[in-house]
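Input chain follows. Return structure tokens only.
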Amino acid sequence: MEEEQLTLFEMNDGVICGADEAGRGPLAGPVATAACVLPDDFPTEILNDSKKLSEREREVAERIIKEKALDYEIVFIYPEEIDRINILQASLKGMATCCLRIRERTHFDTILIDGNRKPKELEGLPVRAEVKGDARFPAIMAASILAKTARDRYMDEMDEKYPGYGFGKHKGYPTKEHFAAIKEKGLTPIHRLSFKVKEE
């Protein structure tokens, strides 16, 4: 991981604030966004793209990130707003909000956003969009883990609130079980109305 450790401060970026999201694809629940600033001695060997870690590995990493990060922020954008501004804009808005909140408290030099779009809310700041950044930049990896674990926890709570939909299992993603539950029981208040829900 030594090569990846260099990405904390590579390319004269100085202190990096990395941002990522979790939950762009589901039919239900919020999109979770997070941003994180790591110290130069952070144990980057525990990090990876959150989708490549097991649930247990994510939970362990989450605890260490929250303990050792210089700062972090997590923001949910809920279905009502996703339906109003679309999922891409909701994701960008959430990531921007996280970065701007951290900026009020903690110094950083560069913002790295996972993906190929930069939020308009960050115009004028030193920000770059990095495709597959969650596989290359530890600060983005950390943000991805924070977003994923926070969203999964929320969907587990929704599984108790709306039993029978399987939210604790599929986290709102489009699975056969989820489609069958929608067909049988209808939509819940946490479903995204702007997403196409297939009947079969």
